[in-house]
Amino acid sequence: MNKFKKFLLIEFVVFIVNVLIGIVAGLLHEKLVGPTHGYFTSSIIGIAGAYLGYTFVYNSLYSAGVEWHAMPARFVGAGIGAVLVLELCRIAAASA
């Protein structure tokens, strides 16, 4: 497998894992906190938060010179980002 195909495979897997983290975070948030937006909307917000968290941790680690061995930390960042964005949306909806 050449380097480009390997790169695309890794990026696809990262995308799928981020989507799964966002969906699970959204569903758990809706179940544990109570109905705020609905399951579908919470899942979409969770996916957006997972992407933001992953990107933030990826850019932070990349600028610090850390490479591929920090992949689990990126996924932890995705989970934290999903929860933070879900909570911010819940707080914004409650104050409106």
Description:
The protein is elongated, with a radius of gyration of 15 Å. The relative contact order is 0.16. The model has no long low-confidence stretch (mean pLDDT 87). The chain is built from three helices and no strands. The chain is mainly alpha-helical. It has helices at residues 3-33, 39-63, 71-95. Helix 1 (3-33) packs parallel to helix 3 and helix 2 (39-63) packs across helix 3 (71-95). It has one domain (3-95).
Give the secondary structure arrangement, pairings included.
Elements: H1 3-33, H2 39-63, H3 71-95
TL;DR?
This protein has 96 residues and is mainly α. The chain contains three helices and no strands.
Describe the largest sheet.
Answer: none
Derived from helix and strand composition plus strand pairing, the structural class reads mainly alpha
Give the count of helical stretches: 3
Silhouette: elongated
Tally of individual domains: 1
Please state the CA-atom Rg, rounded to the nearest Å.
15 Å
Give unreliable regions as ranges: none
Mean pLDDT: 87
Helix content: over 70%
What key attributes describe this structure?
84% helix, 96 residues
